[in-house]
Amino acid sequence: MNEAIKDLDIDNCLRLLGENYIGRLGFISYSCPYIIPITYFHDVEEKSILSYSSEGNKIDAMRKFPSVSLQIDEINTIQHWKSVLIHGKFEELKGSTAKKYLKKFSQGVQETISKKIDEKPKFISDFSSRLSERKLPIVFRIRIKDISGKYRAS
C-alpha cells in the first residue's frame, strides 16, 4: 500500500477548483496572516476566482496588500484527500463590471452546487453570506498567478 503524498497535476487541480465553491482565503492584515472561508466561483475563461464581500477588514487588507492565496480541499479520510493552493492578486471590480461578475459568480456557484449535491439554490443568499443592509457588495476577483496541488490516496 502506497501512502505517499503526491503532486496533483494541473488538470486535476483545475477540476477540483471547478467542482467546489467553498475555499479558505489567506491574506495579510496588520502584519498578521488571516485565513477565512469564502464562497467562490472559478472563472475558467479568465483564469481567476470570483467572489464578493461587504466592506470590512478582509477587503481593507486586500486593498493594501493584494497578494492572496486560496486553498480548496476535498477530504474523505485521513488517507484519502486532495488539496489545491492558489496564489494570486486581489482585484476589486466596480460599476457595471462588478454587476456583470456578480451575476457570473451567482450563476456559476448555482451550477456548481447543482452538479455537486443535486440541489438548485434560487438566491445568492442560499449559498453565500448575506450582505449588510442596503450597501452594495464589493465584488472582486483573484487573478491566478500560481496553482499547485497535493493528494493522498491509499
TrEMBL record:
Q: Which superkingdom?
A: Bacteria
InterPro entries the record matches: Pyridox_Oxase-rel, Split_barrel_FMN-bd
Spell out the Pfam families in the cross-references: Pyridox_ox_2
Name this polypeptide is given: Flavin mononucleotide-binding protein
**Which organism's genome codes for this protein?**
Flagellimonas hymeniacidonis
